Amino acid sequence: MKNNQNQNNTLMWFARICGVIISGIWLYQIISALVGGGFQALHHRPTNGIILFLLIASLSIGVLIAWKQPLAGGKFIIVLSVLLSIFIYFSNLDNRFIPILYQGLPFFLVGLLFTQSQANKQEEG
Q: How many domains does the chain divide into?
């Protein structure tokens, strides 16, 4: 029983640390692009840059929500990461799958870690 609690705590902290790192990297990238050249530096069309910024900011807020409510935050992160992947797929004309792998997939995995830690916790009782 104690071993399962340690595993859940480890899984939860791993999800939190990864979520903060991934959110920080992408927020830094987008903010530096905004400071450097506006939304047009993010994509060829300014509306794509705005949508990308809103998705990444929402995912970062989801990571913060998951610190307090891991199940709700994890589900929120999973849904938004799927939306981010769909957006990336339709906005990229050259290479569609590599950007999904390094933008959408990390957030998706963090969401899965949060939800799995709560599922393990609920199984215990």
A: 1
